[in-house]
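This section describes the prediction task in plain terms. A model, or a person checking by hand, is given the sequence of a single protein chain and must write out its three-dimensional structure as a string of C-alpha cells. No templates, partner chains or ligands are provided. The sample shown here is typical of the held-out split.
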Amino acid sequence: MSAPESRRFLEDARDEASGYLGRELTDAEWAEAYPPAAQKLSSIIRRYGDRGGDRRQPWYLGKLVQEHITFSILSRYCAAMSAQKKTASEEDGLLTTTTITPKIINCQS
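The expected answer:
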C-alpha cells in the first residue's frame, strides 16, 4: 500500500471508529488505541485469515480501535469506583477481625 493509500486507509479507519463511538476521536485516543488495535488485527489475520479481504477493510480496524477505547474508558471507570468503595465494616466503623482456630476432633472410638 502506498503512503497516500495508507494515509487514506487510516483516516477511513478513524472515521469508522468515530462512527462506532458516536463522537469524534481525540488525537490522544487515536494515538493510544491505534497501535494495539493494529497489532490485534495483524494477529487475527495471521491466525484466522482475512476472511476474503473483509478484515483488511477500514471498518474492521475502526471496530478494533473503538473496542480498545471503550475497554480503556470502562477500565478507568471501574478502577476509580474500586478506589472509592469501602467494605461494609469500614462503612460502619467495625474494623474487627476474628481469629478462627481449628477445633481438633478426636475421631477414635
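For orientation: The chain has a mean pLDDT of 86.
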